[in-house]
Design goal:
The protein is an alpha/beta fold. The chain has one domain: FAD/NAD(P)-binding domain (3-Layer(bba) Sandwich). The protein is about 35% helix and about 25% strand. It has a 7-stranded mixed sheet, with helices on both faces. Strand 9 and strand 10 form a beta hairpin. It is globular and about 65 Å long.
Length: about 400
């Protein structure tokens, strides 16, 4: 069986590795000529780690990940710690640690594991069509034909347009995210802590990744459409956060402006269909979510594992296998997209009263409530069966 995968992000590469496990001949097609990181870091929670373990990649992911032993929320303007707690209860109950990683390094590892010779760069998809039991992908420089095609081509997916027969709008969630990587600095936050500074509907956060580094992000509520020059990004952060406490100001000073990313945050309302014939969606093309649950990459690798299992069970009936895949994934993905959006509204001040109430709740938080929320999120994973 021949599988064509459009997109070489975390989801597409994971799907390629998964399908090879069940005997598929897989080719991945990527529109860009050079792989560059989109977003500096990401969080891999126990459900994502369990899926990578299923793919035989636990040790590789662990080698990339940071030691995240605790979590804290700090009042941004004053520097007062609202809550700080150990994540060990999460790891004890799940039996699996979380590993925040640099996105580029995770993608690089997956490309090595899949095999770079089977990844065709600089081949943007132009169109696709099905004839009988074959799917053909059309590129500027030729065509490729297979038994199925997986659209892992992201938020602006062309494959999604084929599956749905229309283009879906992306919804702006009201804030801009600045992100990057800095060297760990204990004067910003403890090296083993995911620390988030909150206030005024804004956030500044650092998370330990491998190599003695913090992945950081700043969230700033604002209208969409601005296109500031890159060399002004740090000045904009200074305007938004310059009156906050010393650790946040120190983080801004540490930022390398040349590698600072700026992203307007959007999502897409949950889809009611992921498949058409022998074509299916995976990752952001199927469930474009905001990052407020930290589940984007985890959801993509969950998709890959479920796709593998569904196609292994369906054998030669690929269309039936894709329908099984869709049925197993669509409700969970919709729930997480909706929960992430609801959390985004609270954390970014869409309702000032709800945001103020959240800040007050954090002052009373022992960690138990937040850990229960994380467990609720991860325990729906298709391969997660280790909860006590």
């Amino acid at each position: 069986m021949k599988a064509l995968i459009i997109g070489s992000g975390i989801g597409g590469l994971s799907a390629g590795i998964a399908l090879r496990r069940i005997g598929y001949d897989v080719s991945i097609f990527e529109k860009v000529r050079e792989i560059r990181p989109v977003g500096a870091g990401l969080s891999l929670w126990p459900n994502g780690i369990q899926c990578f373990s299923h793919l035989g990649l636990h040790d590789q992911v662990r080698a990339l990940g940071g030691a995240m032993d605790q979590m804290a929320y700090v009042d941004g303007p004053s520097g007062e710690t609202l809550t700080r707690f150990s994540l060990q209860p999460l790891y004890d109950r799940s039996g699996i640690r979380a590993y925040p990683v640099a996105r580029a390094e995770l993608q690089d590892m997956l490309m090595d594991e899949f095999g770079r010779d089977a990844i065709q760069l600089g081949r943007p998809l132009q169109a696709l069509h099905e004839t009988g039991d074959r799917v053909t992908a059309v590129f500027e420089d030729g065509e490729a034909t297979g038994d199925l095609l997986i659209g892992a081509d992201g938020a602006h997916s062309l494959v999604r347009e084929h599956v749905l027969g229309k283009t879906l709008p992306r919804d702006y969630l009201g804030y801009v995210n600045y992100n990057g990587i800095v060297t760990v600095d204990p004067d910003i936050a403890p090296p083993d802590s995911w620390t988030t500074f909150v206030g005024e509907g804004k956030r500044a956060s650092v998370m330990p990744i491998g190599g003695g580094r913090f992945y950081f992000f700043f969230d700033v509520p604002m209208a969409s459409g601005a296109q500031p020059a890159r060399d002004t990004y740090r000045d904009l952060l200074q305007q938004a956060f310059g009156h906050w406490s010393a650790p946040v100001r120190r983080l801004i000073a540490a930022v390398d402006q040349t590698s600072l990313n700026r992203v307007e945050i959007h999502d897409i309302a949950p889809l009611d269909n992921w498949c058409r014939g022998r074509v299916a969606l995976l990752g952001d093309s199927a469930h474009n979510t905001c990052p407020d649950l930290g589940q984007g990459a985890c959801m993509a690798v969950e998709d890959a594992v479920v796709l593998e299992r569904a196609l292994a069970q369906s054998g030669a009936d690929i269309a039936a296998g894709l329908q099984t895949y869709q049925s197993a994934r669509i409700a969970r993905a919709a729930e997480l997209v909706q929960r992430a959006r609801a959390r985004s509204d609270v954390t970014h001040g869409k309702d000032a009263g709800a945001t103020a109430a959240w800040y007050q709740e954090l002052r009373q938080e022992t960690g138990a409530g937040i850990i229960e929320g994380i467990l609720k999120t991860v325990q729906g994973s298709p391969v997660f069966d280790r909860f006590a």
